[in-house]
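Notes for week 9. Today we move from apo structures to complexes. The key idea is that a small molecule is not decoration. When we ask for a structure prediction with zinc ion present, the ligand SMILES becomes part of the input, just like the chain. The input block below holds both the sequence and the ligand string. Read it once before you look at the output, and try to guess where the molecule might sit.
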Amino acid sequence: MPTQSNNTRLKRRLWRDVHGRDLGVPVPCHWCRCLIGFAQATVDHVRPRSEGGEDELLNVVIACAECNQLRNRWNQTGLW
Ligand SMILES: [Zn+2]
């Protein structure tokens, strides 16, 4: 299992490299487009780790906690 610091590193890269924003500037959730601050944002794996998804920029997006939770539930029930 990746550590929290891996996720934080990915989150920083998403913020700077993908969205081109300072960490103090909110970015939109990938799914619902609500604006999220850095501390509240979660790193969501487009292809879940359980299916071989990797911790790389091409496989992760910024998601709000709500969407991240919903996605986890869908992944577990196979409805996604
Ligand atoms: Zn969202």
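Strands lie at 27-28, 35-36, 42-45, 60-63.
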